[in-house]
Amino acid sequence: MKELIKHGKSTIKAAVFDFDGTISTLRRGWEEVMEPLMLECISGGKNVSDELAREVRDYIDRSTGIQTILQMKWLSGRVVRENPGAPSDPWYYKKLYNDRLMDKIASRISDAENGNAADYLIGGSREFLSKLKSAGRTLFAASGTDNSDVRHEAGVLGVAGYFARIEGAKPMSESCSKEATLRELIGESGYRPENILVVGDGPVEIKLGREFGTLTLGVASDEKNRRGFNPRKVERLTDAGAHAIVDCFEDVDAILGWMNN
Description:
The chain is of the alpha/beta class. It is 49% helix and 13% strand.
């Protein structure tokens, strides 16, 4: 566990979790679907320059964790700039992306449904969620993945029951479920920022947590192995201002000790 920044800690009463890459690895490799789709659409099927490939890769890297539709909005703008007359509706591109991604992960979902859910959970996830809930903390999941999909996948992995609420991207909406959840907790539910822990593997949720004044825990896991540090994630989460970074949740007592001291 890497503790990076001191935080004036207080009793944690609620925790907001990102889902994909933080709890679930069902969607591991989504970048390998999005990148070629973006390059194909922007280039119009022509040769892809090194400059364009870098631009797309950099955009995907820094946008990790936002609503998928916002990534597709960027794509549609970039496509039309290069190919006047091409489809400009970001929802068109989102459907293309979702169809390809679901083709990629369908076998994983089936495998998880057939008793192998543990193979698609970041190490120690279930125990960490269980201990937090048993200690009286209220848990929320907030994701940029479509609402119906993230709820279904949480159920498939057997972790839906740990969360008081699971919020994903709403149909035909660009609103950020992570920001909305934090605003509601602090503005309407009466939680103080220092009573909230934000946990995620992307810079978006960590930056939001810092902006709202919460405690933030980055998860920089090698998703293929479900444990072990991914250096690029460490770099992104450090830059985003995570108070501490773990590779997984297997050393649950150390994480709980850090939260409480």
